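step: validate -> pass
step: tokenize input -> pass
step: predict -> running
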Amino acid sequence: MKDFFIKLNTFFRNILLDDVDKPYGKPLPYHRKFNSKERQKKDIKHKRANEHKQQTKGF
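step: predict -> pass
step: emit ->
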């Protein structure tokens, strides 16, 4: 019975998640420059600019 469920699970996993097990070949996009100081500064500037824009928008 356990073998049947393992095969069934593998079958549906292969159908729904066919690209999960494929090797990517380069660093994943969300790991690119993860701890970069320039990127952190850029993100903070962008966040502050958006907050400022929202606060000065008015009704």
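step: describe -> The chain has a mean pLDDT of 82.
step: cleanup -> pass
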